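Lab notes, practical 5.
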Amino acid sequence: MKKLAPILPFLLLCAAWNSHAQSPGATAKHPLSEEVQTVFNQLRAQDSLLFQLGYNQSDTAQLRLVIHDDFEFYHDQSGLLESKELFLKGISGLCHMNYKATRVLDLPSLEVHLLKNNGNLYGAIQTGKHAFYGEEPGKPRYLTSTATFTHVWILENGSWKLKRVLSYDHVVPGEER
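Output from the prediction step:
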């Protein structure tokens, strides 16, 4: 171990770089198949619509296109929203807070698992971690919480629709779990 001590920081840096160089959700032992990689990329784009436009910019028109009509949102702190309309109303409420809320995806944590019926793709489970920030004029951006999410996406007429959301394990800076 003493022989490794001088180069340990270098080895840790190489390991960290290598983990980010691979596709998120893939490991050296388990590279993503072409089908999974395709769905991963499609859902990463949908995630961007959902959060970059929907959450970060309160663009409910874009959200309406991404969210399934039979939508449910389960949140470990603010409860259950049992409809698409309740969720969209909540997103609209973000515009009326005393700070601008933004969400940042932890891309290396993102994973996708396909759902099939007799070999036919009908949906996918997407999991990952994200961080939420507050922004106020004249102040630096600050972390408000981190959380884990699980999304169930359904392939409907060739389009991915978000049907179920589990948002959990929220941690507020300075608070113990």
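Observations recorded by the TA: Residues 145 and 172 are 4 Å apart (CA to CA). The mean pLDDT is 83.
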